[in-house]
Specification:
Number of domains: 2
Radius of gyration: 23 Å
CATH topology of the largest domain: Hypothetical protein af1432
Largest sheet: 7 strands, antiparallel
Distance between the termini: 55 Å
Number of strands: 7
Oligomer: single chain
Shape: elongated
Strand content: 5-15%
CATH architecture of the largest domain: Orthogonal Bundle
Structural class: alpha+beta
């Protein structure tokens, strides 16, 4: 009966995984569900990048319980070579499952070993591991899942069984199909970003991945504060992640003379630059899905300010003409909750990344100066609650900067 229940769960999960559009969020969910399928206390998921495996997510129920409610586990960002020396590297090399009952007693004849330094640093004892390749039907390796410490019904640590191997193999095969679709979605989005990057050197893949990552972390904490249920939270974070990646896509309509200017804009140039907000929103003016609506909101409003001093304000997206005007006939800026949630979140994420990054006309600000500026702009440029949330999740923000470094 337990096996039948597990298979039913896998079938349900397969359907849910295929509804997730963003690659990173899918990887995180795959790891979570893989651990549930085989009752694993912890685990990591890696993706193949050239001849290495790069960690994308790590989860650990035991360590998570030690944290305050709502706080996320922070893990080391690292990569391992695809070779025989490590469990994950060997799994990737051979594309076969590796099931180890006790990593501290691996037989000498095995080519791989376990690096005990991770346990010493974390204070967590790894015993059993099950490492599974994520490979396509054609045999192409996408990554590796490693689950750790199978739990018995009484909470003890036991070895992973042959039945666990069968269940997770079936799960991994279906998860890989979802991953292939998500890779295609990510590739299409990055092609759109590449168009912007060809026009605007600041609009790099690393920048948009960081901004989108920050945005999801800010939203997650906001959702926790406001008691959003898991279904609504998962749905929104998926669409917000992609929308945040596309926040500046309207820059493709701005002249190279402005976009590639290696200095600050004049007032006239800045006015032209502001149009990228509604040019971007126009790309989603015939909404076919919740993603289109959120993407339009984010593109249009991520430069609005909490106090109403931002841009483009209340305008007709298709014409750029004001809908509400001030005494000088200029468009009134949106303020406070008039700015959609996605716009308020991405505003903080985008400014943080811009200040923290080197540009042709400026050096990166120091970490402390960036934090001081964000605090100073609370209630002026930024929603005060989003600033509070930003500092609550600062360890996660720093981790995302490590995951997506700017290429020199």
């Amino acid at each position: 009966m337990a096996k039948r229940t597990d298979l039913r769960s896998i079938i349900r999960i397969d359907s849910e995984l295929n509804q997730i559009q963003d690659l990173d969020l899918l990887l995180e969910r795959i790891l979570l569900e893989a651990r549930k399928v085989v009752r694993a206390d912890a685990g990591s998921i890696y993706v193949k990048e050239e001849d290495r495996l790069v960690i994308k997510y790590a989860q650990n129920d035991t360590k998570q319980k030690e944290l305050p409610p709502g706080q996320k586990l922070i893990y080391s960002v690292f990569s391992v070579p695809i070779n025989e020396k490590t469990l994950s590297g060997y799994c990737a090399l051979t594309k076969k499952i590796v099931n180890v009952s006790d990593v501290y007693n691996i037989p000498r004849e095995m080519p791989y070993s376990f690096n005990t330094s991770f346990d010493r640093i974390s204070g967590y004892k790894t015993t059993s591991t099950l490492t599974v390749p994520l490979k396509t039907a054609e045999g192409r390796l996408l990554g590796v899942i490693q689950v750790i410490n199978a739990r018995s019904p009484d909470g003890g640590t036991v070895a992973f069984t042959k039945e666990d191997e069968l269940l997770i193999t079936h799960f991994a095969a279906n998860a890989t199909v979802a991953l292939q679709r998500a890779y295609m979605t990510r590739a299409m989005i990055l092609r759109m970003i590449k168009m912007s990057e060809l026009r605007d050197p600041k609009e790099t893949g690393a920048h948009v991945n960081r901004v989108a990552g920050y945005a999801v972390e800010i939203f997650d904490r906001w959702a926790y504060r406001h008691g959003l249920n898991d279904v609504e939270r998962e749905k929104t974070r998926d669409t917000l992640k992609i929308a945040a990646m596309l926040h500046d896509v309207g820059k493709v309509a701005i002249s190279d003379l402005i976009l590639k200017k290696p200095a600050r804009f004049t007032q006239e140039e800045y006015a032209v630059m502001q149009a990228h907000t509604y040019f971007g929103a126009r790309l989603f003016d015939d909404p076919q899905s919740p993603l289109d609506s959120i993407a339009a909101d984010v593109a249009l409003t991520h430069h609005e300010n909490w106090d109403g001093s931002g841009y483009p304000g209340w305008i007709d997206v298709m014409t750029g003409k004001p809908l509400k005007t001030d005494s000088q006939g200029k468009a009134l800026g949106r303020k406070m909750e008039e700015i959609p949630l996605g716009g308020r979140i991405v505003a903080v994420a985008d400014v943080f990344d811009a200040l923290s990054s080197k540009r042709v006309y400026k050096q990166a600000w120091s970490e402390q100066d960036v934090y001081d500026e964000i605090r100073k702009m609370s209630g002026i440029k930024f929603d005060p609650e989003m600033v509070e949330v930003f500092f609550e999740i600062l360890p996660s923000i720093k981790q995302i900067r490590e995951l997506y470094p700017e290429q020199e």
